[in-house]
User: Which sequence fits this backbone?
């Protein structure tokens, strides 16, 4: 294996202009285009394995319903009634034992496949046909046990998106894993600053001394330096270890992993909503949702094998605490960066070669914004991106 | 009397597009046009019956002063000093015993008819004439004891507005009534969602089981299905009752009411600021003020006859508690609807025939917005209404 | 000495339109032009007298660093790292004992003169030259011991700005003074309303009875009634007094002052960020920063001679309490005015002759806005000033 540092090259790139992190118009352009046309991470499919299991995912003004049908099929819908638009399910929805979904306003009722099966007093209403008023479906897909959905239209299939990682994590058997711990962070920084922060370990010596002892910052490779999925592995300094408070594993190695993978952590960003951190003994997921130009909601999930969770004495705290500390260090520096790039005097600086993935993120972001930018659309990105 | 349900017809209408409930620009257009040209409910005239009695009414950035003059005339003014613009009266103003209104900034002083009667150090100021600097008057009118005012210009007189209800509530002698209880609600929903909610009882079985027992939702008529005043009576299930926690009256029947009116409640919306709920034994008023696209201030007043209020053992709680519960159920569903219609995937659904008044509200609203829409004005509604 | 009142003439002027106090666009135009091209008050130079002393000044999205170098030179810089833009110093920064400034993100390090002296892993990065990546400098100047800075470009030197006051306060020896007390106020009013309020004593009889006893409101002169520096002296009613709770001095007269200056207070506004109130025994500074159209941060500093501060029994409370009370009365009336001028029905009233300096402030403000208004710039003021 080649040491990553020697291969990396930021090619003289500089960062994004400050307005990309501060402008309401840029976020509006991102919302109406990017976050509608891209696949967004929703959660592990295993959390919705029984018929009637349900969850919601909010994203800006949008809200999605994910429901496992009586037929075992997982479906996604917009979370509002077709009659007057009332939001159907609250965030704490977990299961529909009745097999139906009833709007609390006028009692319009849908089955688990989204069909309208009850609408009081609508018989005889001019032009009304119940078959036309089922829940609005959403694109939904599952990759390696992780559910993704799309609020608007998009050409790319989930398989096409994940082609660069096809088969890569088969040995970990991620679909079998369960969420052992979940934490949510409300970070006062633009979502892209959080992506950029995750995309390099150049900051690790100054910001994360504990992490840097476990995975020295130069011991990384970047398999993927182009497109919507970016990243690669880092080598653990200590064989048989993991990322945890004391560097020791908190569970047996996952699935059938072997060889180098027993001593590496794989870090990938899935544009524009997920960080996938695959450890020998657990998987960490960061799901991101922009709330404002300077505010991002980040949901962290620690996934373990159910056998490990069930084992006597199982305690994920060393892994959870380690990443919680690292997260907080990262959010703090992202917040400082948010405040700095808001200055009219800020101009993007040069990337180190160790930041080659950050430069790749920027290139992919700008390409994605251009791709969805239809000059006849309102608002066009090219104009809207200006503060 | 014909049962209302049989007469109703929503004529295949669908609701308003989501932007009408969420766009800052739509609210701005409503504020600069609709809420300036329409009569807005201010309060019962009886609360201002002595010379010097004063109250304020805020509406967005606007604030009105209502003052009973020494001559017994009730007048309305903009609540700011003509000199540097300081707001003159706070919200808790009740009475001006001095017979004058003095600005706390530079002591400019006005009489109760708004004339500038004192302005220190202004004598000899070039071009200054005190007669030109009285308080800015507002249009003000009283209908059936209820005060309405208008912040800007409008062609319609208050009598023309209320023509459809002329003489309708004479028997209740509303001008004699007094506010026995007042409550204010801060609702996270667009003001039009609150109007729509009040305009139908299709939601009563699912949302208000207690209310639906007192007035079964189909036992309604809609006398008025066109224009700025909409609504009609509902029949009480139990003769001699009222809308209250136990269904029993909390006071004797009002005025000279007789016949059907002893067993009916009359519900009318007065566009764009008042719900008028006339019960056999009391009158309930909901005054609405939009605070933001997704936020409405609602002031509820329960009016009783002073003889009832003075009677030993008078307790309005059963009426107040009943409507407070109903209000809270309504506000909660309006808030759910606000969140749902904000989705880009929301498209208006079909109205049931029982929602014919909601459809009539929508038609009147759109007509009112068009009426005030002068294409040379800035901002024109047609453009501004787009998100 | 001529009594000022007799000389004053507001020349029939009226105030500014309401939009100047309420519009987001006006503030944006002020920020992107006015507050970038004008000198802004930062603090007394004496607070930064040792090498390594450092402080920050925030203004909207901008943040400045002020650092006393090893060479004794005081310099100003934008407070962000040139690499990824992280804000370098927090508000509580006081001293850099290490003689260097290290960014917490990737450890880029600057010396006290702003040069980049350390950037890990940047050697060999294509096109990188450390000499190009020092901190971004700001214009900085010191007048009579007070530090001013400029976030953007401006033609005028600090000496040119202060020409009207050249030599005026030499006898007070302001550069020797130290901050004995500092208070910050968050006022819900536009910054220009606060300037206008400070610019006249016409309001003193009604609003400040205690102040008006110490300096009767007509006993003022206005030496300067044109340009960015406006104001003049007021005569103390009691010889040997000062502005304090009991009217007595709290410290010996400053420096070498003599004659009339022993019994006068000098009040000047330095457009657009400072009020300078020079008393016989102390100097009061109000530094203003707009936070929103209806919100201004005001920092008050009471400066005394270090000998007075060190004297046994020194107690600035009578001076501090007196102005704190006066400030609160002023902020309250500014807030009332903010609410009043927001009305669409507000039109500016006539100024009294005693408000001649307010009229002069308005003229200077409008001229300054026109001066920076380049019709090819975005956004042009002429259009942006409209709500």
Assistant:
């Amino acid at each position: 294996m080649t040491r990553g540092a020697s291969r990396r090259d930021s090619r003289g790139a500089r960062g994004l202009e400050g307005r990309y992190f501060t402008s309401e118009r840029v976020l509006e352009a991102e919302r109406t285009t990017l976050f509608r046309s891209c696949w967004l991470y929703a959660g592990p499919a295993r959390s919705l394995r029984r018929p009637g299991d349900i969850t919601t995912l909010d994203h800006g003004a949008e809200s999605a319903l994910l429901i496992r049908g009586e037929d075992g099929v997982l479906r996604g819908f917009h979370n509002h009634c077709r009659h007057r638009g009332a939001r159907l399910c609250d965030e704490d929805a977990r299961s529909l034992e009745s097999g139906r979904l009833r709007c609390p306003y006028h009692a319009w009722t849908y089955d688990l496949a989204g069909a309208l099966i009850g609408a009081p007093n609508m018989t005889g209403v001019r032009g009304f046909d119940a078959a036309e008023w089922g829940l609005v479906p959403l694109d939904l897909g599952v990759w390696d046990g992780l559910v993704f959905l799309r609020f608007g239209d998009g050409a790319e299939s989930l398989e096409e998106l994940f082609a660069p990682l096809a088969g890569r994590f088969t040995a970990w058997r991620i679909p079998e894993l369960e969420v052992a711990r979940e934490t949510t962070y409300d970070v006062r920084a633009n979502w892209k600053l959080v992506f950029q922060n995750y995309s390099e370990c150049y900051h690790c010596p100054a910001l994360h001394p504990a992490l840097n002892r476990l995975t020295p910052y130069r011991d990384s490779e970047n398999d993927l330096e182009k497109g919507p999925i970016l990243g690669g592995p880092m080598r653990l300094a200590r064989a048989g270890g993991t990322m945890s408070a004391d560097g020791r594993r908190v569970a047996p190695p996952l699935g059938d992993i072997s060889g180098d993978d027993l001593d590496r952590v794989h870090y990938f960003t899935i544009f524009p909503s997920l960080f996938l951190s695959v450890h020998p003994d657990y998987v960490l997921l960061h799901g991101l949702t922009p709330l404002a130009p300077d505010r991002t909601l980040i949901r962290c999930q620690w996934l373990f094998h159910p056998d490990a969770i069930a084992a006597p004495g199982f305690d994920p705290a060393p892994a959870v605490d380690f990443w919680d500390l690292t997260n907080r260090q990262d959010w703090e520096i992202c917040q400082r960066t948010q405040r700095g790039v808001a200055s009219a005097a800020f101009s993007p600086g040069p990337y180190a070669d160790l930041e080659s993935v950050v430069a790749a993120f920027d290139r992919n972001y700008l390409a994605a914004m251009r791709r969805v930018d239809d000059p006849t659309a309102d608002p066009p990105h090219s104009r809207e991106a200006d503060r």
Summary: The interface with chain B takes residues 9-12, 15, 18, 22, 196, 202-203, 205-207, 333, 336-337, 339-346, 348-354, 386 of chain C (CB under 8 Å).
